[in-house]
């Protein structure tokens, strides 16, 4: 979306002020700024609610009515889950724009958290398809608004050259995964014991706890968190209001006429993510508020965007292909007790909690000697591809041992730690000052595209002929990784001193 009209000189002033305003030597939270603890907490509870709901969502959609589900075709349900996940990350554009132009990151984050809680309540209390639609729309838009702004606020705690930045994002990422660990355990057990709607209700309670904790700490956030970076002039508000109204009308027409429907929603979401990314990059690149160095950094971000989308197309299959695989092919018997399939989605967060701190300490220790962001991206893609290739020996008619899937999900974790927190960090480092939060939204657009593709790809999985699926997806990821590694020197040059 177009930037506000302001001078480059005015935009350079907040950067200098923000840098000087950061407490020098603030190491009160495990060697990091104190406010990292507050953002760690709100994100943890939001992820508890989000992943708790996500852990049982696919099953709710394709289980039969006798099992408490909606009896949606399994392949269609997987595509819809992917489209929903893509929509969450696509909505970060709206949350970022509202923060940068109207309300500031802190207010948008708080309002988004309220919307998320309302969505979980809708899933818990409203039966059938209407409850599903209302709940997913509210949670999707709310999560998108919260994600970009929480990340941007973490980035505001560090100076551009602060070597603790990647480590700080790794600690923040650990909070995300504590919530991601507990959420599916709680909702999965409640779903198998008391039904889907009780599980969704637990997600609402989790978000309510997060809201209370965050409310108590809001006033302690720095002034920068409340600032609107590029205020929208009053004379332009009517124009933008009409633009948003027109967008809503177009969406309504597409849905009402059936041009966009359940069967093509996933592909439509993918096209929307690609189109939004292209438009966003063009507008940022052409903005008079962006300096020459910043333009080169925006160009450097493009291959990282592509690599990130490829990574998430594989990683997010935890909620599509692997969810179905866990329900139907995994041996979940533990000493005579069958583990809920949703609990499989807590395996990755366990590993993240264990190893995120290790990786944070590693990056801190290496300092300026650590690998560049493009090489970290290449490593993440490579490991992700190898993880899918590791399914090949398990192909066949028999049940997959739980430990085998645990090992594969450990590879998922290593890949994630090389790419995801680094992606959050590098998006804040490469961001032009006039588009700070919106650059974070661009990173989430890559997640949107990848998540949508994860749903589409899961529909191609054939349990009767698994090898082409594993070989094709894993092989493409390995090729992408090699290409990213080869291009890393050129990308580093464009990054203008940012690692």
UniProtKB/TrEMBL annotation:
<feature type="transmembrane region" description="Helical">
    <location>
        <begin position="77"/>
        <end position="99"/>
    </location>
</feature>
<feature type="transmembrane region" description="Helical">
    <location>
        <begin position="48"/>
        <end position="65"/>
    </location>
</feature>
<feature type="transmembrane region" description="Helical">
    <location>
        <begin position="171"/>
        <end position="190"/>
    </location>
</feature>
<feature type="transmembrane region" description="Helical">
    <location>
        <begin position="265"/>
        <end position="285"/>
    </location>
</feature>
<feature type="domain" description="Major facilitator superfamily (MFS) profile">
    <location>
        <begin position="38"/>
        <end position="492"/>
    </location>
</feature>
<keyword id="KW-0812">Transmembrane</keyword>
<feature type="transmembrane region" description="Helical">
    <location>
        <begin position="196"/>
        <end position="217"/>
    </location>
</feature>
<dbReference type="InterPro" id="IPR036259">
    <property type="entry name" value="MFS_trans_sf"/>
</dbReference>
<keyword id="KW-0813">Transport</keyword>
<keyword id="KW-0472">Membrane</keyword>
<feature type="transmembrane region" description="Helical">
    <location>
        <begin position="342"/>
        <end position="363"/>
    </location>
</feature>
<keyword id="KW-1003">Cell membrane</keyword>
<protein>
    <submittedName>
        <fullName>POT family proton-dependent oligopeptide transporter</fullName>
    </submittedName>
</protein>
<feature type="region of interest" description="Disordered">
    <location>
        <begin position="1"/>
        <end position="25"/>
    </location>
</feature>
<feature type="transmembrane region" description="Helical">
    <location>
        <begin position="375"/>
        <end position="396"/>
    </location>
</feature>
<dbReference type="Pfam" id="PF00854">
    <property type="entry name" value="PTR2"/>
</dbReference>
<feature type="compositionally biased region" description="Polar residues">
    <location>
        <begin position="10"/>
        <end position="19"/>
    </location>
</feature>
<feature type="transmembrane region" description="Helical">
    <location>
        <begin position="297"/>
        <end position="315"/>
    </location>
</feature>
<feature type="transmembrane region" description="Helical">
    <location>
        <begin position="440"/>
        <end position="461"/>
    </location>
</feature>
<keyword id="KW-1133">Transmembrane helix</keyword>
<dbReference type="InterPro" id="IPR050171">
    <property type="entry name" value="MFS_Transporters"/>
</dbReference>
<feature type="transmembrane region" description="Helical">
    <location>
        <begin position="402"/>
        <end position="419"/>
    </location>
</feature>
<feature type="transmembrane region" description="Helical">
    <location>
        <begin position="108"/>
        <end position="126"/>
    </location>
</feature>
<dbReference type="InterPro" id="IPR020846">
    <property type="entry name" value="MFS_dom"/>
</dbReference>
<comment type="similarity">
    <text>Belongs to the major facilitator superfamily. Proton-dependent oligopeptide transporter (POT/PTR) (TC 2.A.17) family.</text>
</comment>
<dbReference type="InterPro" id="IPR005279">
    <property type="entry name" value="Dipep/tripep_permease"/>
</dbReference>
<dbReference type="InterPro" id="IPR018456">
    <property type="entry name" value="PTR2_symporter_CS"/>
</dbReference>
<dbReference type="InterPro" id="IPR000109">
    <property type="entry name" value="POT_fam"/>
</dbReference>
<feature type="transmembrane region" description="Helical">
    <location>
        <begin position="467"/>
        <end position="491"/>
    </location>
</feature>
<feature type="transmembrane region" description="Helical">
    <location>
        <begin position="238"/>
        <end position="259"/>
    </location>
</feature>
């Amino acid at each position: 979306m177009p930037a506000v009209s302001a001078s480059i000189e005015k935009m350079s002033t907040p950067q200098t002020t923000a840098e000087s305003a950061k407490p020098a030597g603030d190491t009160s939270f495990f060697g990091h700024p104190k406010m990292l603890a507050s953002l760690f907490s709100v994100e943890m509870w939001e992820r508890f609610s989000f992943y708790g709901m996500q852990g049982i969502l696919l099953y709710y959609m394709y289980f039969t009515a006798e099992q408490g589900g909606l009896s949606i075709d399994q392949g269609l349900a997987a595509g819809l889950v992917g489209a929903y996940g893509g929509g969450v990350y696509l909505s970060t554009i709206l949350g970022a724009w509202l923060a940068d132009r109207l309300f500031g990151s802190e207010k948008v984050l708080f309002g988004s958290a309220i919307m998320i809680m309302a969505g979980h309540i809708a899933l818990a209390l409203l039966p059938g398809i209407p409850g599903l639609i209302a709940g997913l729309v509210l949670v999707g838009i709310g999560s998108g608004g919260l994600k970009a702004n929480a990340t941007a606020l973490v980035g505001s705690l560090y100076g551009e050259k602060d070597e603790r930045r990647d480590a700080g994002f790794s600690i923040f990422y650990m909070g995300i995964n504590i919530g991601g660990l507990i959420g599916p355990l709680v909702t999965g057990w409640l779903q198998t014991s008391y039904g889907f709607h009780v599980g969704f209700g637990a997600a609402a309670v989790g978000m309510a706890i997060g809201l209370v904790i965050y409310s108590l700490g809001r006033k302690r956030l720095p002034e920068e968190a409340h600032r609107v970076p590029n205020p929208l002039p009053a004379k332009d508000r009517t124009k933008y209001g009409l633009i948003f109204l027109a967008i809503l009308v177009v969406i309504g027409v597409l849905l009402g006429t059936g041009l966009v429907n359940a069967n093509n929603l996933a592909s439509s979401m993918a096209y929307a993510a690609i189109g939004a990314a292209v438009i966003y990059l063009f507008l940022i690149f052409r903005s008079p508020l962006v300096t020459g160095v910043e333009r080169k950094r925006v160009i450097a971000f493009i291959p990282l965007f592509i690599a990130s989308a490829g990574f998430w197309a594989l990683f997010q299959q935890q909620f599509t292909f692997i969810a179905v695989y866990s329900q139907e092919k995994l041996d979940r018997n533990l000493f005579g007790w069958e583990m809920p399939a949703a609990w499989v989605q807590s395996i990755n967060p366990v590993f993240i909690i264990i190893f995120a701190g290790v990786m944070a300490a590693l990056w801190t220790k290496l300092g300026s000697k650590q690998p560049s962001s493009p090489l970290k991206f290449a490593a993440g893609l490579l490991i992700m591809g190898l993880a899918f290739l590791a399914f090949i020996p398990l192909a066949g008619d028999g049940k997959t041992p739980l430990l085998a899937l645990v090992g594969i999900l450990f590879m998922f974790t290593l890949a994630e730690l090389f790419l995801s927190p680094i992606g959050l960090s590098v998006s804040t480092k490469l961001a032009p000052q006039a588009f700070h939060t919106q650059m974070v939204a661009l990173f989430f657009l890559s997640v949107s595209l990848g998540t949508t593709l994860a749903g589409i790809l899961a529909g191609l999985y054939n349990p009767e002929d698994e090898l082409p699926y594993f070989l094709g997806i894993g092989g493409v990821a390995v090729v992408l990784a090699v290409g990213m590694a080869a291009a890393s020197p050129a990308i580093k040059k464009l990054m203008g001193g940012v690692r």
